[in-house]
Amino acid sequence: MRFEGNLQTSSAPRIIKKPTQIKMQKPNKRLSNQTAIVTGASSGIGISIAHGLGRDGANVVVNYFSNAESAEELAHLISVDKTCGDAIAIKCDVSKENQVIEMYKQTINHFGTVDICVANSGLQKDAPMHEMTLAQWQLVIDVNLTGQFLCAREAIKEFMRRGPRPEVSKALGKIIHMSSVHEVIPWAGHANYAASKGAIVMLMKTIAQEYGPIKIRANSIAPGAIQTPINRSAWETPEALNDLNKLIPYKRIGQPEDIAAAAVWLASDESDYVSGTTLFVDGAMTCYPGFATGG
Ligand code: NAD
User: SS3 of 173, please?
Assistant: First the structure.
């Protein structure tokens, strides 16, 4: 039977929220006495994840590459909120080895250790494959893949140096990679991006296999279409949003909070037996919506 009600699938898009405008659900404090690094946390999904982890009791490093003001504002917001952990903002280009090492050093100096790494930074440099420059290819691979490798590697080193703290978490440490539905859906005009996200799967699974025996968990989140600056053109007009909704069986664009809720759960002991997997948070975008009417 077909639902004929008004789902308001093409309503005017919500505006991008500033850190001060975000309302999270009541926190559970699942992450007290833990420290998380969230990369790319001065905008979009990263803001919500950093805020969500802080609200659940974690100390948070708000990593940023650009928009220092937003990162500082978010770190301030978390740190002055008595219901949250502490927070600081640290600038770092995740594609640069020395800067990632330095970010971990500063974090450990400030908070003592790192328990959770959310490798969220990412970008797009789109072009048809036959026109894609090596520079466009390389930048996306450097940030989206090498950046996640460097952050995960430094996290693993710190988890091993620090050793277990069973009173804090069942796991030695947790790594959360930000992937995309494009780890499985090919994307014409975005070969560099799709390749970077496809590679994240094997990076994440190999970490889970290699370090599972010492209780390090690695997982990915694969967002569908989430309303952030990275995909503004896909939602900023009602027409674009209507077109986008054709790709989403659940008939709404995702919000950064949808991804934050998944990240906080993956960081917590509630997901202690979850490792080596991708959690798709996509309103069923990966369920072949084109076949909904018979294909
Ligand atoms: P966004 O553009 O708001 O966030 C990306 C962040 O990465 C920005 O804060 C940016 O400054 C940061 N960044 C870029 N280069 C960096 C570098 N060299 N070092 C450190 N940080 C750097 O977009 P978003 O949607 O919040 O994206 C976050 C992640 O989610 C990305 O990995 C993206 O691929 C992924 N994702 C987003 C969507 C979506 O629909 N928004 C869908 C699937 C996957």
Answer: strand
Question: Does the annotation mark 193 as catalytic?
Answer: yes
- CA distance linking residue 223 with residue 230, whole number of Å: 12
Question: 165 CA distance to ligand 1 centroid (A)?
Answer: 31
116-119/173-178 β-pairing:
parallel
Two structure tokens written together for 197: 């996200």
Task: Report the nearest atom of ligand 1 relative to the CA of 197.
Answer: 34
Span from the CA of 167 to the centroid of ligand 1 (angstroms): 33
Distances in Å between the Cα of 204 and the Cα atoms of 20, 58, 179, 209 are 33, 23, 10, 9
- How many other CB atoms are found less than 10 A from the CB of residue 293? 6
The answer to whether the CB of 36 falls within 8 A of the CB of 267 is yes
pTM: 0.93
* CATH superfamily entry for domain 28-285: NAD(P)-binding Rossmann-like Domain (3.40.50.720)
Which tens digit of pLDDT belongs to each residue from 23-81? 655 557 999 999 999 999 999 999 999 999 999 999 999 999 999 999 999 999 999 99
In our burial notation (b when 16+ CB lie closer than 10 A, e otherwise), range 193-202 reads bbbbbbbbbe
